Amino acid sequence: MTEQEAGLSAPTVQTLPTGEVFATLDTSPRGLTPADATALQARLGPNELPSAGRSRVWRQLAGQFTDLFALVLLVASAITFLAYGLQDPREAGTLQLAVAILCVVVLNAAIGFAQEYSAERTAESLQAMVRHTCRVLREGERREVSSQELVPGDVVVLEAGDAVPADCRLVEVHEVSVNNAALTGESDAAGRTAHPVAAGPVLQARNCVFMGTDVVAGSAKAVVFATGTATEFGKIFRLTAAAPRQRTPLQRQVALMARRVAGTALAIGALLFLVRLPTGQPFVETFVFALGVMVALVPEGLPATMSVSLAIGVRRMARRHALVKQLLAVEALGSTTVVCTDKTGTLTRAEMTVVRVWAGGAEHTVTGVGYAPDGEVADPEPVRGLLRAAALCCNARLVPPSDGAGWRVLGDTTEGALLVATAKAGLYLAAEEAAAPRVAEYPFDSGRKLMSTVHKVTDGGGYHVYAKGAPQELLDRCTVADGAGERRPLTDALRAEVIAANDALASQGLRVLAVARRPVPGPRPGQETAESELTLLGLVGMLDPPRPEVSDAVAACRRARIRIVMVTGDHPLTAEAVARRVGIVTGPAPTVVTGVGFEALDDDGLDALLDRPGELLLCRVSPEDKMRVVGGLHRRGEVVAVTGDGANDAPALKHADIGVAMGASGTDVAREAAVMVLLDDSFASIAAAVRLGRSVYQNIRKFLVYLFSHNIAELVPILAATFVGFPLVPISAVQILAIDLGSDVLPALALGAEPPEPDVMDRPPRSRKEQLFSRAVMGRILFLGGIQALGVTAVFFWHIHASGILYSEFTEDDTAYREGITMVQAGIVVSQFFNALAVRTDRQSLFRIGPLSNPWLLAAGCFGIAVMAGISYLPPLQALFNTAPLDLDDWAVLAGLGVLLLVAEELRKAWLRRRRPTDPKGGTR
Known about the structure:
Helices cover 49% and strands 16% of the residues. It is of the alpha+beta class. Strands 10, 11, 14, 15, 16, 17, 18, 19 and 20 form a nine-stranded mixed sheet that branches. An eight-stranded mixed sheet has the order 8-26-25-24-9-21-23-22, with helices on both faces. Strand 10 and strand 11 (362-365) form a beta hairpin. It starts with a helix and ends in a 10-residue tail after the last helix. The relative contact order is 0.09.
């Protein structure tokens, strides 16, 4: 969509008188008709920012063949085809090996492509669940519509706290100021006007507001003149959206592992070639044999299995309301050491609720939670006048349930809480507004810290001002107090009583507002007159109740040694009260730093602050301060997850290891900068995502142990045969590929879907320096692989020795040899079945989680054994693999080897639990 298509250019619209704006944009003060809006949207497209371009399907598919493992296998296949062409006579086994290697590459590419394609489509569908709305006039009726449905000519209603959904020209303004930090970098709010201004740079036009900015104060109506990519923010967004992100630790470790494994495979293949060549074997056959061993050592199923594991993690997180936009970010969650969390909406429900009303020296309790007007005010009669005044001084609107959504508030949540309390007191706002219509408004600003409105009392009462705001500021403007109908001069003693009541409410973690009124002679008394000599009606105490699930999530993070730092713009008393309710603060004296104190800290002072042990609350801080906190934590080597919802939170979200944006209340800018979006805005979803992230990393290690341990079982018999002078191989390259394809891929995929272990959140975070192939992982691979290798090597040579034939007299057609190599292949397959069960837990006993609790793993293992049985008993497969049928005794011996492996691993885990109850590094043991 071009600027010309999206509407009138800003330099033109900013110079027009208000009356001409409607005509120029083919609209009216009543807004567009629904039919006109639909037609414009069909022509111009949705009002949305560009997303990262989706890769073409053929590029995604081709990318599967550029992985290092795939390239190694493709080269090996090409060399094997060349060797087949050079052989004289040509060996069918060489051709079979070349084709088998190629099939492995194609199969793994298909699996990897299918998973990435599916994950991308899943992410797109989940992101569509995050809905952004705005208020518009359509034929004079105020409606709430999706921001994507806006078109040039729409008349938008803006109020304090709203995000501007498109580029708009203001046509009606009531003390409006906006925060343009997302566009200009200026954090100070800028006043707006509806009057025409001179042509010039569009961002300096004081009668325009722009997508990505926020309305800080006042209310307004504006006409949309640019949407989507035609907006000023859309132009900037296209430049920043493609900024490259740093590679995650897992990406770096996998790349390093691929190089090391490929180098090791080449080295071992070359060694075997050099060892076997002097034995008199033909050069080409020896080369093909060494090449086959090299291919066997390459974990060709690893990329596909890893993609599947990460994709499963994404889907599981989505079910827990956490949308992860990048597959590899799933793993990074598992190493998180610090969570910097906001308070409102994340730890709390973002539904302010009035719980106390103070008037005439008495407190009145208000029951009920949230925006549903269910509950009551204790003894409501003395406070009805107070709540009526507070409600009339509100711009928010309470919206009844519709379309499956519950009660909602359009506008400021604090005002929403006042409206709900008014309804609980038995007052009907529509009737009160009809009896006292508003004629003027003096919006809230941070200097006065109050808001006032002027109303005409229709029953002959003249005009009245109703005001609400910060208690101290409003109290300074009052001369009289009215409690329960009794007017008293506001003496020093009474002021002290009001201040004590305010402090008592604030100490409970409540946000406190004072409410006042006064008569005025006319509809436009002037702000100074309207807000002086007021009559204090009382105080209202409200809170944003903590989410019920957050306390358990905080406790889980504490057990997991994850530090939680609250970073909020709220009052310290309120922040500490909420932190204590949810368990972030448990000690008597947390470190509390406010914005002024924080700004005075240099980097050394910030480092010293973050180094302090104990609980830390940062209050009244700005988004710029949050960015500094992230930088300071990075200097300490922490892996940081940061929550944010505003456009100016985007730098901190992108700089953090895990940027977490709010899906319900966050801005588009924040969601684009983050790698994870909380669809329910709840901290509990962060804790659940960390738990799943840890399990994903564990699962990756599990199938690494599973895949590499059987490589040892494949290699050791070959090495043993070479060094004892046995002229044939105990297992052929084609058999090894059959194991990798038929018996390993599906169990590895099932291990990638393994649910988190019970104690996964009882371990400390994984160090970012810890390697994927740690000493513990390598030790486990050697332990399990060694047991398999000794078992199958012993079985093979026992079978060969029992035949009574000399080594030098064996040929590939001898029954004993065919049975021996069948025993080796079947032994690896059967032991891998038990190996898959053994690696399901790192430290816990298999029997604690239940051997049958992963039915997909059992089914995959049984499928591999069935494939092996077919190779052993079906004549066509016998001819292909040179195998022989095994009898029941043979299978019993092989099953015994598998049970031995499982028992040995259970004993190792038991020893580990007794030796080290808690792994200080959180690594796999």
